[in-house]
Amino acid sequence: MGLRVLLAATVCWPTTARIAGGLVQLGCSVDAFCPSGAPVHESRFVNLRHAYNALSPLTSLRDALSISRPDLIIACDDRAVQNLLRLRELEPQSAQARLVGHSLGAPDNYPAMISRASFMKEAQALGICVPETIALTKESQIEPALAKIGLPAVLKADGSWGGDGVAIVHTREEAIAAWRKLSTPLSTLRSLARTLRRGDIHHFLAAIRPVRPVVSIQHFVAGTPATTAFSAWNGDVSATIHMDVVVSQGVTGPASVLRRVECADMEGAARAIARRFALSGLHGLDFIRDAAGRVHLLEINPRATQTSYLALGHGHDLLAGLVASASGRGQAPRFPTTTNNLIALFPQEWARDSASPYLKTAYHDIPWEDPGLLRACIASSRPQGRRFPTAAALLPAVIRPYGQQGTVH
User: What are phi and psi of 347, to 5 degrees?
Assistant: First the structure.
């Protein structure tokens, strides 16, 4: 019998379903705990689907764990990690709390890792190249911080992800305005508007139960983004994928086209951080590569990232590495999805620009093996004003002739 895995998600990212497909290839049985309408609901690789209830997240999480009885939980977004940590905190002696600890590695280390300023200090102590980062607890600290790190600078709110909660500032006035915005919970009216616009009730709940986030200010490093995804078990890294970002959705948004690279500094950072925090599961690191080619670590994503499911050969198949470590049995990596180092993520790049040249020159990572997921991704990523396409209509525009782009397994 393979591992029983529960994928825990609170947002409707397609990555969750892609991870499910990869795990099934490795002989796992996969259930999903996610919001209604998430693409993973349409995946043929998921057995049980448990509804995440934003109004009672821990109750719905307990129910999902009781029914699925997984061997392993994989957190697919930051809020899912927070819910798992909260469950363990409330019921530290329960079997479910022990499962959370088993799946995450060392949950007691997560607060220091989730705090942006604290994490950067820990990384710097490990000898990793990081930009100066200072926590700001009050507005009067902005002036001394700017005197130390200079302008431009980057302000970041703890607990944010996906490009939200980040502001690049070029003047003192912009820094003060950004701190006030990031450190102040949204008003009820603005939260309601955001809830309706994004279809996510969490924004409204945040206004009802406001929490003032901690904001940090970070030295701005000019360059191009880079990213590492890695799997680990009790602090030992089992597989890594290093990428330079070629195209992203906005200045601070997620990547849609990436180029696979080999980088000793990124590899060393992943291994040092996994060991320091005794991590288990899937995680990611964000970097900036400067004009000289040196990478600077910016932050950690303490959960599965959007390239976690890719199969790129021995030492670069995160899911195979995690399954092997968690099961205690050997696990051969999956057949490589592609040998093309340039990868266009689906549906991200197609939704960004349906005429993008990367849809033909890069490996376009479309889930042809999962038709329900493919339809859900197309529907959820339909650009405004564009007529809804069928999968058949999409085909000629997004793939190269068979054999030039790599096959999907």
Answer: -95, 10
pLDDT in tens, 257-271: 999 999 999 999 999
Same-domain status, 241 and 385: yes
81 and 8 together in one domain: yes
Task: With cut-offs at 50, 70 and 90, classify the pLDDT of residue 55.
Answer: confident
Look up residue 233 and give its DSSP letter: E
Q: 249: domain range?
A: 224-398
- Verify that 41 and 86 share a domain, yes or no: yes
Query: pLDDT-based confidence at 405, cuts 50/70/90?
Result: very low
Same domain, yes or no: 233 and 362: yes
Residues 368 and 390 in one domain: yes
Same-domain pairing of 32 and 70: yes
Each residue of 313-348: pLDDT tens digit? 999 999 999 999 999 987 788 999 899 999 999 999
| 337 & 248 share domain | yes
Is the pLDDT assigned to residue 402 strictly greater than 60?
Answer: no
- The domain total for the chain is 3
The two tokens of residue 58 are 């821990």
Residue 242 pLDDT greater than 90, yes or no: yes
CATH code assigned at 72: 3.40.50.20
